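re the bet — no i am not wrong, look at it urself. input seq straight from the record:
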Amino acid sequence: MSIVKPHKLGVIAGPGSEYFTSKIVKHLRRLYVERYEKLSSALAKRHGMSEEEVLKAVTLIDDLDSKSIPKAKCPTSFQVPDFTVKVKYTRFANGEEKAELLDPVRGLRVYIIYDMANEEPVAVAGADEPIKLSVNDHLMFLFTTINAVHLAGADSITLVLPTYPYARQHKKASREALTASMFGHMCEMLDVDRIITLDIHSREIENSFSHIRLENLHGSYQTLIALHKIIDFNDPDLVVVSPDTGAVSRNKFYAQALHRPLAMLYKVRDYSQVSTNAKNTNIKSINLLGDVKGKTVLMADDMIATGGTMLMAMRELKRLGAKRIICMISLPFFNCGAVDTFDAAYKEGVFYRIIGTNAVCHGHDLLDKEWFVQADVTELFARIINRLHHGRSISPLLDNRKFIQILINNSQGIKDEDLPASATEAAAATDPVRA
């Protein structure tokens, strides 16, 4: 395999995931250009060659590694080949779905990028107008795509799923299905090699796999970059609050990173009732362990669905004297009219901002809201794909605590000599933006 070109890399966008995939591909192409420029400069210096001679040598190696016989003239500049694979998605009148590959994938390491939570209208063959697809529609499109790629002779299949489907159905109380595990088993039966996702709801899901490798990414670094644009990390009135007991470890992470106190909300629920929307939840009472009076509150959670529990928590914090409230969410689903509910709460002054990643596709009904700030995680996925494709370690990107420590310490005016040696070495060895 070429060390600078993705000859055996194939990227497929699921229906409705074209924009998210295009951003990942754009980052991938830039990464290959940057890698080549660094490699060319180093080789020219090491071997006493000009960069033109290095380009000729690299082109020769690429031509020998390529499956096709080159016919054009030798390039005068480095060119990144197109590694996107076109797919035609069809939905028939009876609801059946099909994926048809329009490009060959034999021998390729294929990455299928699919936003399974996308509720925006999607254009597919067989429908005159864009249609909304349920998560089950997305699942069937995903399975038919996987099967088509496998039958077409791909070397390996990796699913890039920013949101893991059915992640909240990871445990059972009585006679119910373990659907999160079932999805993994179905992927294994279809010969999927790896799944890359973002902030999976429960790490227990990984235990259900026999041979699939699960890479669970974290968008905390990207979220903190977005947060830094709207608040001062040096604010002495900053406090981190966990919205419930299940999010304590996540919020403890932010409290330790920001060097700020940690408080917690404890909720009493009536589990005989099911939460249907933001106004009808099964929460009966909320108690606060800590102090938020006159404070700027940061709350972090993995997802917002209907948002009822989060809004109830924010209203309680406001009642207890919180000055302003900012929520950091990895997966902002905003189901069942939650955007309108949060918009009304914002106009009431219940909260200040909500920071969510672009791992879930949304239209202008959310993105144009003053209170919503989007954190971009596409470069993170691009770097993971790049490293996996070339057999490089992904540990520096899976554990981003050192990068976050450097970001926060720099913003708080702490010099490098005041940092632990490990953090300083990490900053010099691996730039979190360019690693």
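see?? The chain has two domains: 1-218+377-396, 220-376. told u. also The domain at 1-218+377-396 is CATH 3.40.50.2020 (Rossmann fold). so pay up
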